[in-house]
Design a protein that fits this description.
Layout lengths: L3 E6 L4 H10 L4 E7 L19 E3 L10 E4 L6 H11 L3 E4 L7 H8 L3 H4 L2 E3 L7 H12 L5 E9 L23 H17 L2 E9 L10 E8 L4 E7 L5 E8 L2 E6 L2 E5 L16 E6 L2 H21 L6 H19 L1
Parallel strand pairs: 1-2, 1-4, 2-3, 4-5, 5-6, 7-10
Antiparallel strand pairs: 7-11, 8-9, 9-10, 11-12, 12-13, 13-14
Length: 333
């Protein structure tokens, strides 16, 4: 395939990151940008060569593309997915979460198998550094079995005045709140690696002076491998990404832009008492660079499927549906 054409639904916010990635990918071009109502200012689109860009209000203009990217607000995903599965034969890249209600999810699950194999949901953390750490570091550093994963992640979005007019501040549009737009990343990755959770606990809070959606949440569960998972996500705290992973023979800490690995368990002081294990690995991390790398890897996976005329892996579709279902179920209770 000489040239891969990608059409975009969405052009603001997170969509700009995706636009840059696809535009900078070899043999990729983005001819169309769609919005059902707005006149798109193509001068503001972060594409190197703007001379051939077309802004359209006709969705079927994108049907000539090899792939279509849905990077619009979550409540619009289902409508676009239904239309594209019915009328379009190419590949579909959809931002996470897939949909915003259990009713929509049930319909999505009934899509024909051939259509599920051309839809890809962008859970990019599966292609990132944390996935590598959880998958490879226990064996690499002889850390033993995982016992506990505790994550606190967030920033201060919900205290910005602009948040008030955002769809994320509206409970009717952002039904699962911060869990569906931030927390779902972490839950999806851990359940992707460890399997179905059990004993789920969830608590939602609204702490922002703007809006009524859930801007802070706490989720915990355990897995069949006896690992306990604790997650706190918030749009109401200073920027934080703190991850602690405890194993039977060591531990891993992410904090303040660094990763540290400690071990082994059998570490003693001069009196023979247990003491903090020595540091066996440390590295400075650039969170933004790692995030963009995972996003690039995720987009590259989608592009490779198009380039090689290969179906997307059905395990990714199934995991995406599962993560979406859990988040929608716990927030409905």
């Amino acid at each position: 395939m000489q040239n891969i054409k990608i059409g975009f639904i969405g052009y603001k916010g997170h969509a700009t990151r995706l636009i840059k990635i696809f535009d900078q990918t070899s043999q990729c071009t983005i001819p169309y940008f769609y919005h059902p109502q707005e006149d798109i200012d193509l001068k503001k689109i972060p594409v190197v060569n703007k001379s051939k860009l077309i802004a359209t209000r006709k969705l079927d203009d994108l049907y000539s593309c090899d792939g279509i990217v849905i990077s619009s607000p979550t409540p619009t995903h289902f409508s676009y997915l239904k239309k594209l599965v019915k009328n379009y034969r190419g590949y579909i890249f959809c931002e996470k979460p897939p949909v915003s209600s259990l009713k929509e999810l049930k319909t999505l699950m009934k899509f024909p198998s051939k259509d599920k194999k051309r839809i890809y949901f962008d859970f990019n953390m599966r292609f990132g550094f944390l996935n590598e750490v959880l998958r490879d570091f226990p064996k690499k550093y002889n850390l033993g079995k995982p016992i506990r994963i505790a994550i606190v992640s967030g920033h201060g979005l919900a205290f910005k005045k602009s948040y008030k007019s955002s769809w994320r501040a509206n409970k009717e549009l952002h039904k699962a709140g911060v869990l569906e737009t931030l927390g779902i990343h972490f839950f999806d990755l851990v359940s992707f690696l460890f399997g179905s959770p059990k004993e789920l606990f969830y608590k939602a809070e609204n702490l922002s002076p703007y809006g009524n959606s859930t801007d802070t949440c706490h989720l915990s569960c355990s897995f069949v491998n006896q690992c306990y998972f604790s997650l706190t996500c918030s749009y109401c705290i200073p920027f934080t990404k703190n991850i602690q992973i405890n194993y039977t023979n060591g531990s891993i800490e992410f904090n303040a832009g660094r990763i540290k690995v400690f071990g082994p368990r059998e570490s003693f002081d001069e009196n023979g008492f247990f003491t903090h294990p020595p540091l066996i690995y440390e590295k400075a991390l650039d969170d933004n660079a790692l995030y963009l790398e995972s996003l690039e890897n995720s987009c590259q996976y989608f592009i490779d499927c198009i380039r090689n005329r290969r179906s997307t892996d059905i395990k990714y579709f199934k995991q995406s549906i599962f993560s979406n279902k859990v988040c929608l179920t716990v927030t409905k209770k």
